[in-house]
């Protein structure tokens, strides 16, 4: 009987903590320059600093009149209008004295001497003057210079994923190009004698290789470059060869062959390759037989858990063995592999956090496993709710296609009643 790893089946939280610990030890180093638009979804490899104060001048936030608040003690007040300031004036703006007002537009610089802006709604023009019918407090309708950010302050940290706000912020400080981390290469190795390519006509008991595609999409979404290997049969020699091939990538993700069946050979072959296993299962459903570990391609020392990667330059290649059932593959990628792909992409570790939604129909499950059950989050505006989709278990891709989230059921809950608030893990519906 070939050697097998010592089984260590962890609770979901323990397994996740192991992944997060390893993810936090990864130090991404390769980076490249990228034009701002092309950087959408990429991870910043440099901090973005404010190149000047934000706003660079005291900014009016309303159309109206720039005034001295102390001139509006007695209402109605009549102030002499000495000019108009629109957004982006080129000439220096003269100071405002007591008894005077400037007509001013939203986004324009407030003149020296003024300390408030009265909204145009509370004013009426009387020849060269303006009559004001409402008081203002000092600083009202003005954002002071530097209130949003001081020149030189960090606006975006290294390790931030660039979404539309981050891209806008980088643009606002003049970064037409940004340094982003290079995308990690993630090998996808699907295993199983029954698995055939999607463009094949399968035999009666053969299964098309859908996992390769779901994984490729999930990897791309979190910033990796999927590298698709040929299907590995349930045969140790070829499996061994393909695993070694996968170790040329930055991360190896396998599917299938990690359950307890006689032909589930992945763990055995990894053991032969001197793999170190961090866990060989998690108490979740779907996805219980998930495996996480590391391999040193050239037989160097194993990567001891708790040893920071930065102290050991020899690359430890992390791998995941995800269960082959399509929904198990997707769930375990989301829960465990995603943080590693993100870390290899240079992203700062993010805690996993669930939203809450009101349950529409009762749930009954067996206790003992934390469940991530395909569900539909629906409703309209504030009136939202969540409901499980009927499914035939973790192979039911058709049911999953009608779902848009997972309801998270804690391992000690046997029954959850309609109307209760339940944790929900949303599925990505749009590309980054
Ligand atoms: P395994 O984890 O190898 O025991 O496989 C569990 C189930 O998932 C079996 O019904 C497999 O046929 C199915 N399966 C395994 N690999 C894939 C794949 N790449 N694409 C679709 N289904 C798969
Ligand atoms: Mg199999």
Description:
By secondary structure, the protein is an alpha/beta fold. The chain has four domains: 9-30 and 182-344, Molybdenum Cofactor Biosythetic Enzyme, Chain A, CATH 3.40.980.10; 35-52 and 154-180, Molybdopterin biosynthesis moea protein, domain 2, CATH 3.90.105; 59-143, Molybdopterin biosynthesis moea protein, domain 3 (Molybdopterin biosynthesis moeA protein, domain 3), CATH 2.170.190; 355-426, Beta-clip. Helices cover 18% and strands 29% of the residues. It is built from seven helices and 30 strands. The chain has helices at 12-25, 164-172, 210-221, 236-246, 266-272, 326-344, 397-401, and strands at 9-10, 31-35, 48-49, 59-60, 64-67, 77-85, 100-104, 116-119, 123-126, 129-132, 142-143, 154-156, 177-181, 185-190, 195-196, 207-208, 225-228, 251-255, 276-279, 281-282, 284-285, 291-295, 317-322, 355-358, 363-364, 370-380, 383-388, 405-409, 415-416, 421-426. It has a six-stranded mixed β-sheet with strand order 8-5-7-6-10-9, with no helix packed on it. The longest helix is centred in the last third of the chain and has 19 residues, at 326-344.
């Amino acid at each position: 009987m070939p050697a097998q790893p010592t089984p260590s089946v962890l609770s979901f939280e323990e397994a996740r903590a192991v992944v997060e610990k390893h993810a936090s030890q990864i130090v991404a180093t390769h980076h490249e320059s990228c034009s701002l638009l092309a950087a959408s979804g990429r991870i910043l490899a440099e901090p973005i600093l404010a190149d000047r104060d934000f706003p660079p001048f005291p900014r009016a936030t309303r159309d109206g009149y720039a005034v001295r608040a102390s001139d509006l003690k007695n209402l109605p007040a009549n102030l002499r209008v000495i000019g108009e300031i629109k957004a982006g004036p080129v000439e220096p703006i003269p100071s405002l004295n007591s008894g005077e007002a400037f007509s001013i537009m939203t986004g324009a610089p407030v003149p020296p001497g003024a300390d408030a802006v009265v909204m145009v709604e509370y004013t009426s023009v009387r020849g060269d003057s303006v009559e004001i019918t409402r008081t203002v407090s000092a600083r009202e309708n003005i954002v002071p210079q530097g209130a949003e950010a001081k020149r030189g302050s960090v606006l975006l940290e290294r390790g931030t994923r660039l979404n539309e706000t981050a891209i806008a912020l980088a643009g606002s400080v003049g970064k037409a190009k940004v340094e982003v981390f290079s995308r990690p290469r993630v090998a996808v190795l699907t295993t199983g004698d029954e698995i055939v390519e999607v463009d094949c006509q399968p035999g009666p008991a053969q299964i098309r290789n859908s996992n390769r595609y779901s994984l490729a999409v999930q990897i791309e979404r979190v910033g990796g470059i999927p590298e698709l290997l040929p299907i590995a049969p349930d045969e140790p020699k070829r499996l061994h060869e393909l695993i070694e091939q996968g170790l040329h990538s930055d991360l190896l993700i396998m599917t299938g062959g990690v359950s307890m069946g006689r032909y589930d050979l992945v763990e055995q072959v990894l053991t032969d390759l001197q793999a170190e296993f961090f866990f060989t299962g998690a108490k979740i459903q779907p996805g219980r037989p998930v495996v996480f570990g590391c391999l040193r391609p050239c037989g160097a020392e194993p990567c001891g858990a708790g040893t920071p990667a930065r102290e050991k330059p020899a690359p430890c290649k992390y791998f995941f063995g995800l269960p082959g059932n399509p929904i198990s593959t997707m769930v375990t990628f989301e829960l465990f592999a995603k943080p590693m792909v993100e870390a290899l992409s240079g992203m700062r570790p993010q805690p996993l956090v669930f939203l809450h939604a009101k349950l529409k129909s009762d749930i009954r499950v067996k206790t003992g496993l934390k469940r991530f059950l395909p569900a539909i989050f629906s409703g309209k505006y504030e009136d939202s709710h969540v409901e499980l989709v009927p499914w035939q278990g973790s192979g039911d891709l058709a049911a999953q296609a009608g779902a848009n989230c997972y309801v998270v059921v804690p391992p000690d809950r046997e029954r959850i009643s309609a109307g209760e608030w339940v944790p929900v893990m949303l599925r990505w519906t749009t590309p980054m």
